[in-house]
Amino acid sequence: MTSRLNYRRAEFRPVPPLLRAWPLARLEAVGLFRTRWGIALFFVCLLPGLIRLAMLLLVFGVIQFGPLSLRNRLATPAAREVAALDPFRVEFYVEPVLQVMPGMVFALLLTTLVAARTVAKDRATNALELYWTRGITPIGYLVAKWVGATLLVATITVAVPLALWVTAVLLADDWTLLTTSAWPMLRALAALGLFTGVWTAIAVLASLGCRQPNTAMVVFCMLVVGSAAIGFVASRVLRTPELHGSLSLWHAGGVVARAMAGLPQRGVSVGGSIALLGGLVAGLAWRARARLRVAAVLS
Fold this sequence. Notes:
There is one protein chain. The protein is 74% helix and 0% strand. The chain has 16 helices and no strands. The protein has helices spanning 17-30, 36-45, 47-59, 68-75, 77-80, 91-98, 100-113, 118-124, 128-132, 138-171, 176-208, 213-237, 242-247, 249-261, 270-291, 294-298. Helix 6 packs across helix 7, helix 10 packs antiparallel against helix 11 and helix 11 packs across helix 15 (270-291). The longest helix is centred in the middle third of the chain and has 34 residues, at 138-171. The two termini are 44 Å apart.
C-alpha cells in the first residue's frame, strides 16, 4: 500500500524542549507587527529614541535644524555637566529608559498591551490545553512566553540605547568615545537587560493568574502605578527617600539597574529594591504553580 501511493518512511527525530518552545517565543515577539495598529504602537514607543537621535545629530553638527540658540546650548560644556545631556556619558543613553518619563510610560504601554495579556489571552480562548498536548510542557510554555515578551520590550529598553551609542561612536571626531565608554556601556546594557527580564516576568506571571486579558492588563497597571503612588506618598510623608525605590516596582528596577551599571544615585536602598522585586517575582511564581497544572486548566 505504501509503495503504491509513493509514501516515504518517516524517521522519528527527537526535538529538544527548547527548540519546541522557540516558535512560540518567536510568535510572541513578532505578533505585535501583524496589524497596522501594532506597528503604529511600536513606532510610538520608539519616539523617545528618535528624540535622542535628533539630539545626537544636533550635538555633532550633522543637521542644522532648530533655533541656533538651542544647538549652541546642547554643544556647550555647560550642557555636558548634566549627565543626561552629554552623549559622551552613559547616562545619556540609559536614563531615558529608567526615568518615569519617558521610560516608564512607553514601557508600561508596550508591556501592558503585549506581555500582560499573553497568557490570559490563551486561557480565555482555551488554547493552553492545545499547547500542552503538543509536546510543550507548561514550564516550557511559560518560559517561551517570557522570552518572546522580553525580546519585544528589549527593543526599546536595550536595542535603542545600543543603537544610539553606536551612532554617537560613528559620529564622533575620534575613537575617544568608544575607548572611554565601551565597558561602562556594556555594563549598562547588561543592567537594562536584567531590568527588562524582571519587568516582563512580573507581567507574564500576573497574566497567568487572570482568566481574561483585560483583567490582566488592569492588574498589571495597578501593580505598577499603584506601587509608584504608594512609594511616592510614603517617601514624602515619612521623609525617607529610600522608600520610593523600595515600594515602587519601576523605581526599584531603576535602582538595581543603576547599581549594576555603576551610575551615581542618592537616597536609595539597593537591598530594599532587590527584596521588593525578588519577593514579588517569587510570590507570583509560587502562585503560578497551581495554574501550570493541566487539571487547573481543564477545570
